[in-house]
Amino acid sequence: VKAGPLSGRHVIVTSGPTHEAIDPVRYIANRSSGKQGHAIAAAAAAAGARVTLVSGPVTLPDPKGCAVVRVESAREMFAAVNDALPADVFIGAAAVADWRVEAAAHKIKKEQGASAPAFSLVENPDILASVARASRRPRLVVGFAAETRDVIAHARQKLNRKGCDLIVANDVSEGSGVFGGDANEAHLVSSGGVESWPRMSKEAVAARLVGRIAEIIADSEAP
Ligand code: PMT
Questions:
Q1: Which of 49, 103, 186, 219 could form a disulfide with 6, with the two C-beta atoms 3.0–4.6 Å apart?
Q2: pLDDT confidence of residue 223
Q3: Is 98 a pocket residue for ligand 1 (Cβ < 6 Å)?
Q4: Residue with CA closest to ligand 1 atom 21
Q5: Residue 214 pLDDT
Q6: Is the minimum distance from the CB of 179 to ligand 1 under 6 angstroms?
Q7: Positive or negative CA dihedral for 161, 32, 44, 1?
Q8: Contacts of 162 by beta carbon, 8 Å cutoff, 6+ apart
Q9: What number does the ligand 1 atom closest to the CA of 123 have?
């Protein structure tokens, strides 16, 4: 066990995109690289936590000192997170697909003269909301909000709707370079208010977030 402010704690982090199969060769995805979530997992491990990182498909190396569970779809991520519970802290940094299609068993063929296929979407389980309402709820549940406008207002709504303790809101509008990039500008939203951080590397966001989490846990245990 590594000494540090989170030693003896189990932290579950989700990271990366999910891939939702259309058929055996095609999928729907998003632009998440996993950089932010992986940096958080590494920072939590460096702070002494036992870390389970549940990661969608990314090209990053596994962060040092973390148990990594690799998944593809939102439903697989949901199952892996439930298998990893109980935990002291859950941090949902993954860009989980809100919807999936009912995947075809065989490759959809392009037939001469046929019209383009149409897909109807089915809602995926909401991992964050489910963890926040679980009977084995971690003491601290932290979500992200990726927004392109009204960042703080939408983050506040997500905090309440999903039942979490903290939301890390980030602006992912075109030109922000947050999806896939190396830097992030985060706002920490809780029922107590908003703390806005300047733009910094994703590693620095991770270290600061893990530091705040350790403080919140220590405060909640103070006599
Ligand atoms: O991976 P990078 O390239 O480093 O980019 C980082 C990031 C932009 C992906 C990351 O900082 C971020 O914002 N992650 C959350 C992306 C997202 O899907 O946000 P959302 O606002 O759609 O979802 C809100 C929260 O609910 C998130 O914590 C998400 O993990 C969670 N969620 C959403 C849908 C779902 N079905 N299950 C979930 O758990």
A1: 49
A2: 85
A3: yes
A4: 145
A5: 97
A6: yes
A7: positive
A8: 126, 128, 129, 132, 143
A9: 36
Atom of ligand 1 nearest to the CA of 58: 1
Ligand 1 geometric centre to CA of 86 (Å): 21
**d(Cα 118, Cα 39) in Å, to the nearest integer?**
38
What DSSP designation does 182 have?
Answer: S
Distance 145 CA to ligand 1 centre (A): 6
pLDDT beneath 70, residues of the chain:
none
Q: Write down the domain spans for the chain.
A: 10-103+120-221
Distance 6 CA to ligand 1 centre (A): 24
For the Cβ of 35 lying below 6 angstroms from any atom of ligand 1, the answer is yes
What is the ipTM score, two decimals? 0.99
Strand runs labelled E in the chain: 10-15, 20-23, 26-28, 50-55, 66-70, 89-92, 99-101, 121-123, 140-147, 166-171, 183-184, 186-190, 193-196, 200-201
Nearest CA to 77 out of 110, 54, 52 is that of 54
Cβ neighbors of 208 (< 8 A, separation 6 or more) are: 197, 200
Nearest atom (ligand 1) to Cα of 34: 1
pTM of the model: 0.97
Quote the CA–CA distance of 155 and 157 in Å, as a whole number: 5
pLDDT for position 72:
98
Q: Which residues are catalytic?
A: 30
Question: Is any atom of ligand 1 closer than 6 Å to the C-beta of 126?
Answer: yes
